[in-house]
Design a protein that fits this description.
This protein is an alpha/beta fold. The chain has a single domain, classed as Phosphoglycerate mutase-like (Rossmann fold), CATH 3.40.50.1240. The chain is 27% helix and 18% strand. It has five helices and six strands; from the N terminus they run E-H-H-E-H-E-H-E-H-E-E. A six-stranded mixed beta sheet has the order 3-2-4-1-5-6. Strand 2, helix 3 and strand 3 form a beta-alpha-beta unit. Helix 2 crosses helix 3 and helix 4 packs across helix 5. The radius of gyration is 15 Å and the shape is globular. It starts with a strand and ends with a strand.
Length: 183
Amino acid sequence: MIVTLIRHAESQSQTQENHDLTNPDLSTAGEAQAAMLAKIPAEKYDEIWVSPLSRTAHTFRLSRFSAPVIKYDSRLLEFWFPEQYFAHFPIELPDVALADTYHAWAKDSEERVESVIQNLKELNMEHICLFTHQAWIRSFLDKLFPEEYPMTGKIEIDNCSRTIVQLNEMKSKVIEMKRLCEK
């Protein structure tokens, strides 16, 4: 199976347009970045899973990526959320994907990543796309490749970047790590 991970575009909290660290939307530049994703040649995905946070859902919507099944997945939430933010979740979601069925809003970040990896290994699909967050992608890579991608922040995962992983039982590998739009 091929897993494509897309990091959301620039958020308002990155530009100080909005200090809402819980669920900021895309910045003006972030909207332009996400729209650039629509210019990338279309891939054929079996499913697309989207973090239900505004910046990620908005990036997905502007990307115009498509698949037979598109769903929100709270396991893809930003990696670190202080407990005081849990009262804000679940949030009202735009009607661009199937509803979240995992209800993982307050679950441990590591457990959420492990759950997704296990779920992916059980699926009989060729290509799946996940719209998520920088720290989540780092944790995903750390769990699959602890020697190559330790959670030290040494790898840069820019806004609107794509990481493609070939996932299989014998030997998984990173195929690509690439920024898809301008900073």
